[in-house]
Amino acid sequence: MPDTLPAHMRPDRSFQGLILTLHAYWADKGCVILQPYDMEVGAGTFHPATTLRALGPKRWNAAYVQPSRRPKDGRYGENPNRLQHYYQYQVILKPNPPNLQELYLGSLEAIGIDPLVHDIRFVEDDWESPTLGAWGLGWECWCDGMEVSQFTYFQQVCGIECSPVAGELTYGLERLAMYVQGVDNVYDLNFNGREGDEKISYGEVFLQAEQEYSRHNFEHADTTMLLRHFEDAENECKALLAAGAPAENDNLALHRMVLPAYDQCIKASHVFNLLDARGVISVTERQSYILRVRNLSKACGEAFLQTEAGGAVAA
Amino acid sequence: MPDLLLELRSEEIPARMQRKAAGDLKKMVTDGLVEAGLTYEAAREYWTPRRLVLDLRGLTARSRDVHEERKGPSTKAPEQAIQGFLRSAGLSSVEEAHIHSDPKKGDFYVAHISKPGRAAEEIIAGLIPGVVRSFPWPKEMRWGAASGPRGLTYSGIAGLGGETLRWVRPLQSIVCTFGPETEEPVVVDFEVGGIRSGNVTYGHRFHAPDAITVRRFEDYAAKLEAAKVVIDADRRKEIILADAKNLAFANGLDLVEDEGLLEEVSGLVEWPVVLLGEFEQDFLAIPPEVIRLTIRANQKCLVTRPHGGEALSNRFVVTANIEATDGGKEIAHGNGKVVRARLSDALYFWKTDQADLPDLDQLTASAEKFGLDLKKPLDQRMARLDHLGVTFHAKLGTQGQRVERIRRLAQEIAPLVGADPDLAARAAVLAKADLTTEIVGEFPELQGAMGRKYALLQGENPSVAAAIEEHYKPQGPGDSVPTDPVSIAVALADKLDTLVGFWAIDEKPTGSKDPYALRRAALGVIRLVLENAIRLPMLSNLKFWESGLAPESIEPATVRSADDMRPARNLDLLSFFHDRLKVYLRDQGARHDLIDAVITPESDDLLAIVRRVEALGFFLATDEGKNLLAGTKRAANILAAEEKKKTAIAEAVDPSLLREEPEKKLFAAVNQAEKEAGQAIQNEDFSAAMLALSVLREPVDSFFEHVLVNDPDENVRANRLALLLRIRAATDQVADFSKIAG
């Protein structure tokens, strides 16, 4: 890390500097640097740049930041580590290069984590997303006992076997930033790298939001409305998939409306998470909701394979 | 004799799989070599998170030549048969076959087949790729460009589609060298999944990233040790344990040992370095088992106690994988931070569980149903469990309905076990409440234990609190059995409800399948009853459960339509108890035949069965017992033979037809013994019943000595047979003597 960088660009001095450093690192490794997806998602994996692009035979290397919402993890801004809205840094490389572990470790060094000072470990983690019908094998990556990333070789996404396999890296940005900035409370993170009057902390940006959304997620979100929204999103997803499907007797035609349909799948998934946080879903119902979202994601994945990006060749 | 060195270097292998994998590697390779005709002197496996290693010594350099003579058909056999033989023996024409003569069979063809021995190297090169491909990992994955579809190429690597190698994590390199000690070993050359074998490996990921060329095991192990890799997992364990103990001791602490965690941690590092981390004293307010589980499950760290103390200390032991340039300060500090964050979560859970739920107004109906006090946290959690309608089993209703059933049953059982019915009911109502607490959500293994703690905190009776934890007991043959009557009542109610419920929906264990652990539940009931000496008539309790069963809580189609099946179902469940009891008693050393002799399909008092078996055992050890058994068996054999012949037997003994003195005496004795034994059994005094029967010994012996059963007079014979029946009837009150061996 060049010492000449100003604090507002340095990964160990500012939250934004951390993001910029990762962008620069992965751009150097040939990734397309994308922007966040403009919908509420539970994890960076839901971005169509991962879920859908992990499917089909085409090469795909991308990196992006994804705001992620986990309504249940809200703590009214009172817990120094838990947030219902946080940032994931997501990298997807398809097929995974043979030196993906080294590339990942290189990114840690780029943000100032020296592997001869800090204890970096790859600890077994079988990753599974029941709603996405996805699973993979890999690790939680630990830095001094803290999980800072997830490292997954995707085996299946949307219920479809990945061929070739994509490697997915997900960094928990707040945790990493807390680590490299040496801060114990997420709200104390320096966001912009300035000091004194000019300093903006993570708390100044997000504390109020955490408090308000915790109230919303746990107490006030209208469950009747949400239940209706779930049904709507489910129906719309199916309707769009049906409307965009190629004619049955036309083997060469492409699917014409996968991405809008997949948006509805994302929406259903988020609404489910909200309902779950409100505590209105029983254990048995939970299973059936998960199954319903999975059916949508499967249908979207199958439709994606009938598009150009999914590797189908137009007539 | 040459040695073989094999190293499979991989991306990090899950700790829990390493030991078995290394063993599998040794077995598969040695089995394969032996099958191919080689022998070896010694084999030992090693492993780290990144490698499986096999050190094989004293391998034979070649397999032996094999000569075989294979007999063929007669020289006069049809052409087709001869051609078939030639093909199977690998001969190209009949001239290559030899002709042998046999005096009886005549001339026939014999093929002399010789298979030359193969070089060990060639055998190894042929064997290892198959071992790698068929390695029995619990879960495998594909990776990289080779996992792409056939016909496509990524950066010069062709997709192999379904043929691509599957392994636990990406396999990176293979070292395979072979040669005698006196010579430079050679690389055994082969390729699997795009990886070519060689003699190059790598040391510690961070301390020694450069390539290392190896020759044989000795220099391999030494070079890796120099490259900060300890390949022997047991040595890594010893290092961690010894260093952790020393470090704890030097800081006035005792290590809380944990073999399972040690095994796991030794599988997470190649170069263990032990450090001490710390968290704030305030967190020690959290129950110690929660602290230990938090630190263990999430951080893989060992906890400590102050030297000589009982409680936990606020310091823990981290095992790092590097010799950090700052001496480990950052690592200890970082781990401390994470532990602190985890413990603050745990503390949050612990406090949240003791605070009011936000949706109390919705819980009033549930509270009323169970007589809950919504001012108390655990009562709220139970109300919520009911309110949420959490399913217990699709056909057995919700957890709330289940708790209702357990409450009724516990209340009913309470007087039988000396428990206060109100306390038993209260304990049953709160028994499952902790399932909705945050801590149990995080650590399911703490169910029960947390409920007890929260119950005590809200001022429940200590027996109620204990029952919340103990009603899950005993969990297995080695687990302790609760002795507090309230715990016993709830534990029995919980298990009986489970058993009767699953029997009602016909989800019985079959063969090795017992997904609901019903065998364990039945054994639990048996141990609760026997070890606490409880008289619990099973059948009436099974019946009671049915009457208490709210019909809507059970899927109507499966149960209500089968109402008429209930008696049969209950007998079936009772016989399941009998089977488990037999297994249990046999494990305790009881005689199998005595158990069978005592149990009838209707025996529904487990304690009585055991007492009878004991009394019977004592009785049969006496001379009276042995002789009576012999006499009874004789009577039974005669009866069986005559019954087979369909000889007439009188319905009752007619005293006027008794002619001989011994049969008159026997008749009187039987009447007396039957009455006395019956009385003793009424009083549940099995020894007295045996004693009463033992009086029969002399008259039975004398009867068989002096009286001929098979009297020419049909009526006399029928009467004597009836007398034998009476002996059987008298003894049957105590046990079925025909099932007793000897």
Number of helices of chain B: 27
Percent strand of chain A equals: 15-25%
| Corresponding CATH superfamily of the largest domain in chain A | Bira Bifunctional Protein, Domain 2
- H and E string of chain A: HEHEEHEEEEEHHHHH
Shape of chain B: flat
Runs of chain B in which pLDDT lies below 50 for 5 or more consecutive residues are 550-562
Amino-to-carboxy terminus distance of chain B: 61 Å
What can be said about the biggest beta sheet of chain B?
7 strands, mixed
Structural class of chain A: alpha+beta
Q: Into how many domains do the coordinates of chain B divide?
A: 5
Structural features, described:
The complex is a heterodimer of chains A (315) and B (742). The longest helix of chain A has 22 residues, at 223-244. In chain A, helix 6 runs antiparallel to helix 7 (258-277) and helix 6 runs parallel beside helix 8. The model of chain A has no long low-confidence stretch (mean pLDDT 93). Chain A starts with 14 loop residues before the first helix and ends in an 11-residue tail after the last helix. In chain A, strands 1, 2, 3, 4, 5, 6, 7 and 8 form an eight-stranded mixed sheet that branches. Chain A is globular, with a radius of gyration of 20 Å. Chain A is an alpha+beta fold. Chain A folds into two domains: 7-216, BirA Bifunctional Protein, domain 2 (2-Layer Sandwich), CATH 3.30.930; 221-304, Class II aaRS and biotin synthetases, domain 2 (Methane Monooxygenase Hydroxylase, Chain G, domain 1). Chain A is built from eight helices and eight strands. Chain B is α+β, with helices and mostly antiparallel strands and 742 residues long. Chain B folds into five domains: 3-61 and 119-226, no CATH class; 69-113, no CATH class; 233-352, no CATH class; 360-589, Hypothetical protein af1432 (Orthogonal Bundle), CATH 1.10.3210; 611-739, Isoleucyl-tRNA Synthetase, Domain 1. Chain B is flat, with a radius of gyration of 38 Å.
